[in-house]
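Writing this down once: the sequence line spells out the residues, with the fold written below as integer tokens. This is how one looks:
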Amino acid sequence: TIEKRDMRRVILVQTIRTGLGLYYNDAGRYPDTIQSPLSYNGITYIVDVPKAPEPPDGNCGNEQNKFIYTPVNNNSSYTISYCLGNDYKIPGGQTLKSGVQKVVPENFPKY
């Protein structure tokens, strides 16, 4: 269902974000790209970098149904864009609106 795929999208972005945070703690910067495996100095943070569940939902097309990672500010931060098919309420937290989401390390929803 759309709801399950949206839940999976949010969880997978959190997984990527956690791996990036661990990478940053060790490397002092975020990576140029994220590809499998995500590792630094022999330490692997994510074995298989997740891909967005298919099919795209709601107003999200194939191009938006991806996790698009972009390092910014000389790799001191990043954005991850992804798309939700419906509004998604995080249990005990905020509601994310349907459509394209943009995540930076400081603004990811808390669980």
Notes: The beta strands are 38-40, 43-46, 68-72, 77-84, 88-89, 95-96, 99-103. Helices lie at 2-27.
